Amino acid sequence: MKTLISLLLSISILIGCTESSQKTLLSNPDKAIETKLAELIAAMTLEEKVGQMTQITLDVLIMPNSEPVVFDTLKIRMAFEKYKIGSVLNTPNNGARAPEEWNRLVGMLQDYTLNYSRLKIPLLYGLDMIHGASYVAGATLFPQQIGMAATWNPALLTTAGEISAYETRASGVPWTFSPVLDLGIDPRWPRQWETFGEDPYLASEMGKMLIKGYEGPENEISDKNHIAACLKHYLGYSQPLSGKDRSPAWIPENMLREYHLPSFAAGVSASAHSVMINSSEINGTPVHASKTLLTGLLKTELKFEGFAVSDWQDIEFLYQRHHVAESVKEAVALAVNAGVDMSMVPNNFDFADYLVALVNEKKVPMSRIDDAVSRILRVKLQLGLFETPMTYYKDYPEFGSEKSVEAARITAIESITLLKNEEGILPVSKNSRILVAGPAANSMRPLTGGWSYSWQGDLADEFAASHQTIFEAIQAVVPKSENVKLCQGVRYGTGDYRNEIVDNPAEFSRMAAASDIIVLCIGENSYTESPGNLNDLTISENQQNLVKLAAKSGKPLVFVLVEGRPRIIRNIEPLADGILLAYLPGNYGGEAIAKILFGDVNPSGKLPYTYPRFVNSLEPYYHKATEQLEAATPDGTTFNPQFEFGTGLSYSEFTYSDLRIDKINYAAGENIQCSLTVTNISNIPGKEVVQVYISDHYASITPPVKRLRAFEKILLQAGESKRISFEIPVSRLAFVDADNHWVVEKGTFTLQLGSLSTDFTVDETKVY
Ligand code: BGC
Hints:
The two termini are 20 Å apart. It is built from 22 helices and 29 strands. The longest helix is centred in the N-terminal third of the chain and has 18 residues. Helix content is 31%, strand content 18%. The chain has three domains: 365 residues, Alpha-Beta Barrel (TIM Barrel); 213 residues, 3-Layer(aba) Sandwich (Rossmann fold); 114 residues, Sandwich (Immunoglobulin-like). Helix 2 packs across helix 10, helix 8 runs antiparallel to helix 16 and helix 12 packs across helix 13. It is globular and about 75 Å long. Bound molecules: beta-D-glucopyranose.
């Protein structure tokens, strides 16, 4: 790891490669905010400052399991009178609430806070609104991030962010713990679906646009329609060696910088107001204890000016789990000195007691406290909470409106990815006799996924009951609903996402025989974090058996894969005539799937990750040449995924022609201009994602076989041709070398667009 000094020296390196000038708050400060901030800091006691750095969970403040929720007045006094805490998170009793109820709860907490606060500093409430206002009953739920990424349509994400911000504010909440900017590089990891997939460039482009939706084009978070975003989980959380959540990662610094950092750098450049820290460790150092990563890389090198919040209980865990501190008190010193600004404690007030003692003992400098508190209070001031501590549902008439729902529908439609369509089995005729089967056929829970109405997403069938399951949606779009039958064959049980029940195979076979086509809705139920860990990525045996049973009927099979991560389907894939990957499409997923099945809309999603064929072959598309030297063999000795990154079929057919590039030789500071013609040679309109990949032939660090460097999603009418141009700065081709510098080395590159390609050279080596 670098020392702070060498990190300071390399400031320009990363900024050069993010290609965006940072909108620094402090280079252009709001004078009124900075004046008020200075006054507050000068007037605050140590205890008041530490209170601002303390975040607790709502359940600490209520009578246990009370429904309706009743506040515990003793705990309220303890929190706001004694400890002067500044932030609360989470949904009570792990269940969503109506927006009016959120108004009551957050409103009462704001009143308590302001009543006890000598300096009238408002509370900052935070919730995991990660695909819409996902803890609010009746809110508009979008596909989870992995589905958002599969749209390859960043503009849709700005709209999703705007609607999510609006409905979050309607609930009286100004802060979301979103977006996840972790690199979705490991399909075993139970939070891969919370990411934008495996590509750093795609994740950066998508992340920026979602942030723009949350915070507004100019980060105008005082506007009552916007909220503060939280980039998480900084840094390197998503690539644990074991694939299990919150387990150790071993990531060399050049890989950390080249693959994991760009999405966070893009989020910081987009001026997002907060960051949440990785619960786990990299190379033996828990990130909560890493001054190099928090104060060095994030705050000094990237110039992040918002505040950094710990993840759940993670300061205590430096002692209890990671064993890098000998007591909780030592853990508090370690984390705060490393650069953690706010502790998501969240179950007690010990953090505050320890931190006050540590400052008095001079083990944490007052300057560090002032820095942390300034960062937090600046965001409270920017959010306008001092003037407007609450926002109310009654002022948000568009909550859950048809317009918002339409945006979620379009996002779901554009996410769904057609992976196989043998002999044009899809679209299906609406007059067919259809058997809808599989455990995801008639339930909302697998469609919405984790962090939907509850942590594990297990309340979706209660809260999303008014939305259509896949079966209901299919019935609704055909002329004769009696032609659509349901027999699941395998059902998900309650609780643990792995619970499955095999359901009446004889009846299933009888109904299969009486159908024209079988739609098998398979995959996995909802989960997140460590409850979603698994030991085998292969789709469950019950579901494989169901598919084999269905195949015995001799009827065409269409798989609808509803899954947070790509479960291995190698053994059953040959039995499918068609495969639609739905990811976790949210409340309008059923409708979107039905429309695509019958051709009411044309699919246009593309894989944001490599869909593996074998559990022992989980390489991303940007693997090294040595990983694909030999020809593919059945046992998978070389790169041979089930489906490649960036692929996805359409009911239209597109051709690429006439690739042109403006030069054959570039200087390091120049831009590559390339263009091509894309033609829709079919007789229906369709959307295509044009993707530019560039390969570096030789480099001082073994180059990946290719990297995505630009993309654009376009709509082409039947028979239409369009000329599409890209401008790619040569600096975008940089990699991080053995000295951890971003560099473009001179040499030959290949630019590839579909089956077209052309070579060019870069004639100078440049360190950015
Ligand atoms: C998760 C975070 C989440 C936080 C608050 C943690 O367990 O890792 O992603 O934002 O809880 O709910």
